[in-house]
Specification:
- By secondary structure, the chain is α/β, with parallel strands linked by helices.
- It has one domain: Aldolase class I (TIM Barrel, Alpha-Beta Barrel).
- About 35% of the residues lie in helices and about 15% in strands.
- The chain contains 11 helices and 10 strands.
- Strands 1, 2, 3, 4, 5, 6, 7, 8, 9 and 10 form a 10-stranded mixed beta sheet that branches.
- The chain is globular, with a radius of gyration of 21 Å.
- It binds ligand PBG.
- One of its GO terms (molecular function) is zinc ion binding.
Length: about 350
């Protein structure tokens, strides 16, 4: 054969590495950790094999395990000792995340990021305060199975503007406890600006905001809602999280967050939304993060358990693909497992 082009020439050992376009490093990865104020022992998370909720007393130890694999950053999630209507334990000075952060910053060198949201802290499980009407309606119907939230009516859902103040307080309390970066995930309009204002007002202008900018209303969050006990008690999140059908809207969200002062922009989930990761990457010069979420983790584990997939291989390939699509940082439950192989 008279072939001018033989792409296979570049694929031989020795050359393969030299022409590799994407490199995955342990320092690209952020490991989520769950700290639970309701337990004195580590509790395995059934739907996320290998992950546990740890008590506050073991938060630093858990983070040290992450660091031992070469991963240098964690995202801290808290399960509070009690919940209420407004999620007040989310900004308590002695709240679960605040106590864990103090221990973590005392005892480790990790870069500690916190998830700023109210859904783990509110009884109704929504990512903000409800309007009075939504609250009354929920209370009135919860016993017979709840109600569909909002029915598309803004007066029957989360009160966007009343939530902003609370998110500011949460972020400020995290910074006071030692958070190196805060990551608002409530999909509240104006959340980045409100948090930036609260941080600056309290003297934390050096603390960056990583915004969950393009956060989709995704069924892939299922296992997380077990892990962090943050499932909505009624209705769903489609009044505030994005429609999976939309990509251009993600770019508008990104633009707004940049205007409001975001430092890093996140797309979540990752694998089903790699086109969005790529578009955001091409749209902005800011760092892009992608969240390889709980359902993406659980499905690979489930298939591996059946012997249908090689877990180490598919985990590595998944993270490499997220990086190739344009993510600079990757939040993933595979962080430790993959870092150990790099
Ligand atoms: C809190 C939050 C969620 C996740 C991260 N932060 C749950 C949600 O929005 O429903 C999901 C992470 C995952 O599934 O791994 N709002």
């Amino acid at each position: 054969m008279d072939l001018t082009h033989r792409p296979r020439r570049l694929r031989r050992d020795g050359l393969r590495g030299l022409v590799r376009e994407t490199d995955l490093r342990p320092t690209d990865l952020i490991a989520p950790v769950f700290v639970d104020a309701t337990t004195d022992e580590r509790v395995p998370i059934e739907s996320m094999p290998g992950h546990e909720r740890v008590p506050v007393s073991q938060a630093a130890e858990r983070v040290a395990e992450v660091e031992a694999t070469g991963v240098e950053s964690v995202m801290v999630f808290g399960i509070p000792e009690s919940k209420d209507e407004r999620g007040t334990r989310a900004w308590a000075d002695d709240g679960v995340v605040q106590r864990a952060l103090r221990a973590i910053t005392d005892e480790t060198d990790v870069f500690a990021i916190t998830d700023v949201c109210l859904c783990e802290y509110t009884q109704h499980g929504h990512c903000g305060v409800l309007t009075d009407e939504a609250y009354e309606r929920w209370e009135g119907t919860a016993t017979d199975g709840g109600t569909t939230m909002g029915d598309g009516r803004p007066d029957l859902t989360v009160d966007n503007d009343a939530t902003l103040d609370l998110l500011g307080k949460v972020a400020e309390s995290h910074a006071a406890a030692g958070a190196d970066m805060v990551a608002p995930s409530s999909a509240t309009d104006g959340m980045v600006g409100a948090i930036r204002g609260a941080l600056d007002g309290a003297g934390y202008e050096a603390v960056p905001v990583m915004s969950y900018a393009a956060k989709y209303e995704s069924a892939f969050y299922g296992p997380f809602r077990d892990a962090a006990d943050g499932a909505p008690a009624f209705g769903d999140r489609r009044h505030y999280q994005m429609d999976p059908a939309n990509a251009r809207e993600a770019l508008r969200e990104v633009d707004l967050d940049v205007e409001e002062g975001a430092d890093v922009l996140m797309v979540k989930p990752a694998l089903p939304y790699l086109d969005v990761v790529r578009q955001v990457r091409d749209h902005t010069d800011y760092p892009v993060a992608a969240y390889n979420v709980s359902g993406e983790y659980a499905m690979l584990h489930a298939a591996a358990e059946k012997g249908w997939l090689d877990l180490d291989e598919v985990a590595l390939e998944s993270l490499l693909s997220i990086k190739r699509a344009g993510a600079d940082l990757i939040l993933t439950y595979f962080a430790e497992r993959v870092a150990e192989r790099l």
